[in-house]
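Please review this one:
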Amino acid sequence: MMGGDFNLPAGNMKKALNLLFCAVIAVAVTGLIPSAFAQEQPAVVPVQAVQATDSSTSEPLRIAAKKLKDFDLPGLQQKVSMKAVTSWDVAQVIDFLAHEGKLNNIVIGKSVTGSAKFQFEGATVGDALDVVLAVNNLAYEIKGGIIKIIPDAEYQTLYGTSFYDNKQVKIVSLKNASVARLTPMIDKIKSTIGVAVVDPVSNTLVLIDTPDKLKEMMAIIDKADILTTTETKTFVLQYASVEDVQKELVNLVTKEVGTVRFDKRTKTLIVTDLSTNMPKVELLVKTFDKRSRQVFIEAKVVEITLSDTFSFGVNWQNIFNGLDPRFSLKSVSLPGSPATPIGRLTFNTIVSGGDLQVILDALKQVAETKILSSPNVAVVDGQEASIKVIENQPYKEVKIESGTTNITGVSYVFVEVGVALSVTPKINDENIITCLVKPEISSISQWYDGSAQEGTPVVKKAVAETTVTVKDGVTIIIGGMIKDRKDTTENSVPLLGRIPLLGRLFRYDSSTTVNTETVVFLTPRIVTGDESYLRSRDMKKALKPLRPVNPAGEKALKPVR
C-alpha cells in the first residue's frame, strides 16, 4: 500500500509475523535459498589480526558496517511512503518494510523490542530499515541472503564490539620519527573515545579512533615521519661572544635532534641539526657576529673662575650671542631644576662643524679659564666609557690602643675628589648617537675634627644623570658643576720676612674664597675602527698633494752615474 497510510490490526500483525518466521525457517532448512544470495557475507566481521605493513600506514583492523542499501538484495531500493499516527511495535515496522520491499528472507530475533512513530515519503526500504534499527539500537547481519536482526547488546556479546561502533584501528610503523616525539601531537588530535598505544621498542603506533580523526592523525604522521638528514657545521666567531650566541642557538635548533657546543678559547661554535634548519642557524650566527660600531669621544674639562657677573654659573646664551650662527645652542633642563639657565647643571649642544676653540676663546673674554684635561677615549657601541679628572687627597688615620690614649700607629688614607664622567653611547640606524651621561663632581668642603690632612675630610658631591641625543660630531656641553675653592696667599716684606722667628712679624697670610665652575665638552664621533682616531683639530688640516717628480714643461732629471 504505497503512497498512503498503512494500518494493520495488532492481532493480524502478530499472526503474519509468526507465519513469516516459519516460512524463513523452512526455507533455510530445505536449502531453498536463491543461489543469487549464497555469496553474501556478513555486514560486519569480527576483529581479526592483520599483518602491519612496513610503512607509515596500515589497513584498518575492523571493517565498518555497510548500509543495507549497499547490499545487492532485491527490494532494498524500492521506494516507500507511509505515516504512522500512533507508535508501532518495531517488529511490526520491520515486517511492513519487508513486505513493501518483498524481502522474503528476514529473521527477527526474539529479544527484539522497541517502538517507533514514523513518517516516510519516497524513502528506500533499505534507508528506512537502517533508521528504524538505529533508533531502537538493533543490529543486523546477512548470511546466505538472510537478514538476521538482533539487539545490539547481543551483537556485542557475539563480536566484542557494538554494531554502531565506527572506530577503526591502524598500525603505524614509523621509519624516521620517534614515537616519543609524535605521541604528544597525536594526543592533542585524537577524539575523546580515541586511543593511541605506543611501542618504543619497535617504534610503532597503534591508533584507534573514528575514520575522520584517523585521517587527521595520519596527515600529521606523514609530514613528521619523513626521511631527514643531519649535518654539522663549525662557526668561528669574530666579534660576538660564543656564550651569547650559544644561548640563542639552543632555542633555534630542532628539539631532540639539534645540539650546540662551543669552545670559548677559540670562539668556535659546533652546531648539529637537520639540513632543512641549517640555513636559519647560519642566518642567526651571521646576524649576531657583526663588527660592533665604535664611538670616539673627544673631551675637554675646563675650569672657569666665576666673577661677580657669573657668580651663579656661566650664562651660555650670553656667551653665544654674537658668535657665528653655526654655533646653535640647545639647552636641556633636568627634572626639578629651575627655569633659569644659570645656577644649575645644564646640558647644551654645539652643532656639527662648530669650532670648539671659538667657544673657549669666548669664555676667556668674560672669565678666567683653565683646561684641566683633554682626554680622548674610544668605546664600543652600547658600552660605558669613563673619564676622570681627580685628585687623591690624603688624610691621616691614627690607631689608638684600646682603653688608652696611646697612639699605636699612623696611616694615610686617600680619597678621590674632582670630576668623574661616564658616557654610554648608543648608535641607531640613522647614525644618531644617544648618550647616557652621568657627571659627578666632588670636593672637600671642610675637615672634621682637625685641620687639613689631620682630620676627616667631608666630601661634597654633585651627581646627575641624563640622556642626550645628538648627531654625529655634535658637541655636548655639560655645565653648572660649581664649587668653592679656598686659596691662601702669603704676603711678606722682602728679605725681612724670611728671618727665622722674627720674620713672622714682617709677613701675614690672607685667605680668599674662589667660585669655580667645571665645564665638560664632549664630542662623540662614529668610527669604524679601520681608520686612525683623529681629534677635531687634526681633522681640519687637509694634506697637501705631493709635488710631481717631473711636472709638465720641466726638463727630465738626469740619471745618476
